[in-house]
UniProtKB/TrEMBL annotation:
SMART domains: GAF, HDc
NCBIfam families: HDIG
Origin species: uncultured Gemmatimonadota bacterium
Residues in HD-GYP domain copies: 234-429
UniProt name for this protein: Uncharacterized protein
Top-level taxon of the source organism: Bacteria
Location of the HD domain: 256-378
InterPro entries: Cyclic_di-GMP/3'3'-cGAMP_PDE, GAF, GAF-like_dom_sf, HD/PDEase_dom, HD_domain, HD_GYP_dom, HDIG_dom
Length: 449
C-alpha cells in the first residue's frame, strides 16, 4: 500500500512565500540597478559626447580665429604692398614689388614674375626672388612650361614636390626644385599680363585662400602697372624731345658733332665718382647732353666765324645759356636741367656768366658740366681753332683749377679719363642717363598730401 506525501504545513507555506517575495525583490532591485547603470553610462556617453563637441567647437573657433588673424595679416600686407607699388609710379621696380606682395600674402619664400601679353607670345622674366633667372630674358625651361600650361588653361596650377620634380629634365639647377608651388595668371586691366609663380610655402601647402590672394594682386596692382606703362611712354616722348633738340644744335654747328654725347658720358662718370645721387647723376648726364641747346638762337655766322668774335658777338654767344634755359624750362621734366644749362659757364672764382656766381654757390651739376664741356671743346676742332692734344687739354684743366673750375671736379674728371667706361663709344647716351630727373618732381606734385 503506497504512502501518501504529507501536505505542507502552514509554517512551510509562509517560508516559501517569504522566499518567493525575497527572490522577486532581489530581481527587482537588480533590474533597478541595471537601469541606473544604463542611465549612468548614457549620462557618461552624453557627457563625453558633449566634451568632444565642445573640443570640436573650441578647435573650430580657434581655427576661425587663426584664419581671421591670417586674413587680417594678409590684408595689412597687401595694403602695405599696394602703397609701395603705387609709390613706384615714377621710380622703383613695380614688378618686383608685385612679386614680393604675392610671396608675402601667400606665405611663399621665393618666386618669379613672368610677363606675356598673349598665350603664344614670348615669355620674359620681370622679377625673381631666390629663383635662378635672368632679368629680361626667357625663364628657365621648367618655369616656362609651367607658365605655358597656366596660360593655356587660363587658370592656376598647384604643384607638389613630386609634380615639380616630374617637370624637371635633370639639367636644371638645384634652385628650381620646389617643395611646393602655385602658378597663377596675372590679369591687368582685363588683359593678360603674365604669370606669377610662388614657391616653397613656409608652413603647409598652398590652399584656396592663397590662390584667391594671388589672383587679387592683379586687381590691386592694375593701376600701378598701368602707370608704369604710361611712365615709359612719357619717358620715351621726352627723350625724343631731347634727341630732337640735340640734333638741332648739331645741325647748326657741324663742329660740335659728337661733342654733347662725349661731354655727357664724361660728366655722368664724374658725377658717379663724386658719389652724387642717382637723381643728380641723371641731371648731370642730361644737362651735358643739352648744355648748348641755346645755340639754336645764335646765328650761323657767329657760331661758325673762323676768327675772334666782336664784343657784341661775344654777348650774342653768351646769351645761349639764357636761350637754352628758356627753352628747357617750358618742358616740365627738364626744368632741373634748365637750371644747370643756365649755370654751366659760371666760373669757380666768380668770373663767369651770366650772373658771376662763385664757388659752392654754383650748383655741383653745373660745375661738373663746365669741366666736361671745356675739355671736350679743347680736344675737338672748331671753326676758330685746331684741336688740342689731350695732354695739353689736361694740363689746361689743372692750370684753371681753382679759378675757372672747381678743383675737386677737375681731380675727379682727370681720374675717370682713362677708365674703360670713359673710352666706351656707345652712342646710346640717353639710355645711360636713366630716368629724366624732372620725373621725381612731377611725381611729388601728383602725390596726395
Amino acid at each position: 500500500m503506497a504512502t501518501e506525501s504529507a501536505a505542507p504545513s502552514p509554517f512551510e507555506d509562509q517560508v516559501l512565500a517569504h522566499l518567493r517575495n525575497a527572490e522577486a525583490a532581489y530581481h527587482a532591485e537588480q533590474r533597478e540597478r541595471a537601469r541606473e547603470l544604463d542611465e549612468l553610462e548614457a549620462t557618461r556617453a552624453a557627457l563625453a559626447e558633449s566634451q568632444t563637441h565642445a573640443r570640436l567647437l573650441t578647435a573650430e573657433l580657434d581655427a576661425q580665429r587663426w584664419n581671421a588673424e591670417r586674413e587680417r595679416q594678409r590684408v595689412e600686407c597687401l595694403k602695405q604692398a599696394m602703397r609701395e607699388i603705387h609709390g613706384a609710379l615714377f621710380h622703383g621696380d613695380v614688378y618686383t614689388l608685385i612679386l614680393r606682395a604675392c610671396l608675402t600674402i601667400s606665405g611663399a619664400t621665393r618666386g618669379i614674375y613672368v610677363t606675356c601679353t598673349r598665350p603664344d607670345g614670348p615669355l620674359r622674366v620681370r622679377a625673381h626672388i631666390d629663383i635662378p633667372a635672368i632679368q629680361g630674358a626667357a625663364p628657365p625651361p621648367m618655369v616656362a612650361q609651367l607658365c605655358r600650361d597656366v596660360l593655356a588653361k587660363n587658370d592656376t596650377i598647384v604643384c607638389s614636390e613630386a609634380d615639380t620634380a616630374a617637370r624637371l629634365s635633370g639639367d636644371e639647377p638645384q634652385g628650381l626644385r620646389f617643395r611646393n608651388c602655385v602658378a597663377a595668371p596675372v590679369v591687368l586691366l582685363a588683359n593678360l599680363d603674365g604669370v606669377v609663380l610662388a614657391a616653397d610655402k613656409m608652413d603647409g601647402e598652398f590652399d584656396d585662400r592663397d590662390i584667391e590672394a594671388l589672383l587679387s594682386v592683379g586687381d590691386q596692382a592694375t593701376v600701378a602697372v598701368r602707370n608704369r606703362h604710361l611712365e615709359r611712354e612719357l619717358q620715351t616722348a621726352y627723350v625724343h624731345t631731347v634727341t630732337m633738340l640735340a640734333d638741332a644744335v648739331e645741325a647748326k654747328d657741324p663742329y660740335t658733332h659728337g661733342h654733347c654725347e662725349m661731354a655727357s658720358r664724361y660728366a655722368r662718370l664724374v658725377a658717379s665718382r663724386l658719389g652724387l645721387s642717382e637723381h643728380d647723376q641723371a641731371l648731370v648726364c642730361y644737362s651735358a647732353l643739352l648744355h648748348d641747346v641755346g645755340k639754336i638762337g645764335v646765328s650761323d655766322g657767329v657760331l661758325n666765324k673762323p676768327g675772334p668774335l666782336l664784343p657784341e658777338e661775344v654777348e650774342l654767344m653768351r646769351a645761349h645759356v639764357r636761350v637754352g634755359y628758356d627753352l628747357l624750362n617750358h618742358v616740365p621734366a627738364l626744368r632741373d636741367v634748365a637750371d644747370v644749362v643756365l649755370r654751366h659757364h659760371e666760373h669757380y672764382d666768380g668770373g663767369g656768366y651770366p650772373d658771376g656766381m662763385r664757388g659752392e654757390d654754383i650748383p655741383m651739376p653745373a660745375r661738373i658740366v663746365s669741366v666736361a664741356d671745356a675739355y671736350c671743346a679743347m680736344i675737338t676742332r672748331r671753326s676758330y681753332k685746331d684741336a688740342y692734344p689731350e695732354a695739353a687739354a689736361r694740363a689746361e684743366l689743372r692750370r684753371c683749377a681753382g679759378t675757372q673750375f672747381d678743383p675737386v671736379v677737375v681731380d675727379a674728371f682727370l681720374a675717370i679719363l682713362d677708365t674703360p667706361e670713359a673710352l666706351d663709344g656707345d652712342s646710346d647716351d640717353f639710355a645711360e642717363c636713366g630716368l629724366l630727373p624732372g620725373f621725381e618732381a612731377m611725381r611729388a606734385q601728383a602725390s596726395p598730401v
